[in-house]
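Input record (one chain):
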Amino acid sequence: RHVADGTSLDRFRSLAIDERARVAETESPDRGDSHIIPDGARIHGSVRNPEPGEMVARIIRVLAAARCNVRDAREIAAREWNDPLLARAMAASIGSAGGFLVPEQYSAELIELLRPRAVVRSLNPVTVPMPGGNITLPKLTGGGSASYVGENQNIAKTEAKVGQIRFSARKLAALVPISNDLIRFSSPQADAVVRDDLVAALAEREDLAFIFDDGTQDAPKGLRYWAPNANLVAANATVDLANVTSDLGNLVLKLKGANVRMLRPGWIISPRTEQYLLTVRDANGNYAFRDEMLQGRLWGWPFGVTSQIPENLGAGSDESNVFLVDFADAVIADVPGLIIDVSSEAAYFDGTNVVAAFSLDQTVIRVIEQHDFGMRHDASVAVLTGVTWAP
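The corresponding structure, as predicted from the sequence alone:
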């Protein structure tokens, strides 16, 4: 009934079974179709629970290893990487000539990671799903009115003025080159590298669209072009603390004067503007805004900083903008899912030249995200123009 150390026979059998399973896991897997990945270029995957967004990176890496052949990718995930979770994810989705459609539960994690990286998303706008590629929402164009009435008099008719805003899927394509060494030899930490590069690329271009694109050439219309002309305020040409404070106050007055609810107001500024506000001092040498801004707020409201606000506008190529927005009236409509294409032969523009991925031993990932952006109340955006504040 018992072995020498007193362990029960049942317990002994259980330990033996566990040991056989451990040995089986450490042995080389059946290589079957081992031609899928060249010898010496095998990837050792991980069956640990992935962090948010890592599964998308794993899908990218396994598709790259399989040269975007979905059937081979499933084989690699299951047999070469020993990652049953990834294999199930690949089987749950579809591949087509238009790319591989990432399962919604994983792509949603990646979109959530955009929140802290993309300034507009970080300031808490309304987000709605747009599964059909189009959605129409009511839009407030004016408020109702009220009046006093005497006894036995009819109450005057009053109603809010509403319209509609239609959201249509706008396709954002990001190209992200990754080293083939990450695919061939890297540990699972490569998932985080690929994920972070992808999120950074999407966040950068998305912010530019949601802030400064004019709604043409298949891009969304950004905040700058949602703002009514009455809410465009010219900054004082003389830059000092008194005028800067007055300029910021004028933006607040524009929103409050239009009866904006001010539920989730927030600022968007450029890096140069942030640095000025952090360093400007009053007549006594005290920092005017620094203490509050180090807590992430300006005049009690959160602010975001992005280089997607130009600093080279105007005749002197030295002007920027400051935005004040009630983000309770800003809407991002997202199409669920991401589409992924992988190529080791593609070329891409690196900011200076067109380079070939093949010659650099890279794989180029193209990820397509679809969304639209709009304001349900135009007057909830005010823009300070002609800003030349600099430290």
